[in-house]
Design brief:
By secondary structure, the protein is α/β, with parallel strands linked by helices. Helix content is about 35%, strand content about 15%. The longest helix is centred in the last third of the chain and has 14 residues. The radius of gyration is 18 Å and the shape is globular.
Length: about 280
């Protein structure tokens, strides 16, 4: 791990794993410490991962001004990391809510991106968000699972606005994993400890996004973009990922079979081969 300083003086941490060409990794959550990305299914065998802890998460310091948690305000942090690494252009991988930060970075610094990988992202920055109906439709794909009935009831309550629909059991977490096994349960159990919910609410402030302006800026992006969707994911489902891809001139979509929101856990080999083939040949 090393630390560097954001333009506003906030100390930021970046964890280094693996070997090979550099790949800057932007976590989601929103505002979840990068630890949950782990080694991205073994991508460390091919790439040196630079896992950024967003301000106020993980080993990064909290900013003096909480307003800087806003997604658009953190674009400068990603650029500061590029400068610190001494990269003229960089490959970036972002996950979930972190893809909005990556999209805004691409819009603001298009010539600093070599390649971009966006993993299971609904792209609020482009005005694309899943509806409750779309999320529940994806959940119903899991109807044969033994845990489905209880988890679906919990998910319905959550999407209706109940912050804790099942007294802290988080049964709906099952829908975010392609296999709700011991490995997935252990990963999900760390969510609360790794996430700053108050910062996450500021991160997603509607004022952070101007979808028409972002789409217009991305129309000039020359970097190739890979968007990975999970076939079982509802946040977003593959159809929304295809919609997002239309905003990237060189965007293409891979739908990972049997995967949900964390595809590197559901089928590491498929995920790693998809990402590495893209990074190596695009």
């Amino acid at each position: 791990m090393f630390t560097f300083t954001a333009p506003d003086g906030t100390g930021l941490a970046c964890h280094v794993r693996g070997s090979g060409p550099p790949l800057v990794c932007v976590p989601g959550g929103p505002m979840r410490a990068s630890e949950y990305l782990e080694d991205l299914g073994g991508l460390t065998a091919h790439r040196t991962l630079y896992l950024l802890d967003l301000r106020g998460t993980g080993q990064s310091a909290a900013p003096a001004d909480p307003a800087t948690y806003r997604c658009d305000r953190q674009v400068a942090d990603v650029e500061a990391l590029r400068v610190h690494l001494g990269l003229e252009r960089m490959d970036v991988l972002a996950h979930s809510a972190g893809c909005n930060l990556a999209a805004l970075y691409a819009a603001r610094h298009p010539h600093r991106l070599a390649r971009l990988v966006l993993v299971t992202s609904a792209q609020w920055a482009l005005g694309i968000r899943p509806t409750v109906g779309e999320r529940l439709a994806a959940a119903r794909l899991r109807g044969d699972e033994p845990w489905f009935a209880a988890a679906y009831a919990s998910y319905e309550q959550l999407l209706a606005g109940d912050d804790d629909p099942d007294d802290g059991q988080y049964l709906y977490d099952a829908f975010f994993y392609g296999r709700w096994d011991e490995r997935a349960r252990a990963h999900a159990a760390l969510t609360d400890a790794q996430t700053d919910d108050a910062a996450g609410a500021r991160y997603g402030d509607a004022a952070a996004f101007d979808p028409p302006a972002t789409r217009a800026a991305l129309a000039h992006l020359d970097a190739p973009v890979l968007l990975i969707a999970g076939a079982l994911d509802g946040n977003p489902d593959p159809a929304l990922v295809h919609r997002a891809a239309a905003s990237y001139p060189r965007g293409r979509v891979v739908v990972q079979p049997g995967a949900a929101h964390y595809p590197w856990l559901d089928d590491p080999a498929f995920f790693v081969s998809s990402v590495e083939e893209f990074l190596a040949t695009s």
